[in-house]
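tokens incoming
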């Protein structure tokens, strides 16, 4: 469920004009996804 939500957010961010703020948000989202994935794999 959470993954689907972030995928939608990522798509919306990609469609929006690029701003440094959205880049930072995407970096945070990516870091959180990586953390979740490593927890799942561990």
């Amino acid at each position: 469920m959470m993954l689907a939500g972030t995928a939608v957010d990522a798509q919306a961010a990609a469609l929006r004009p690029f701003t440094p703020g959205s880049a930072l948000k995407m970096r945070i989202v990516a870091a959180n996804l990586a953390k979740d994935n490593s927890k799942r794999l561990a």
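note: The chain has two helices and no strands.
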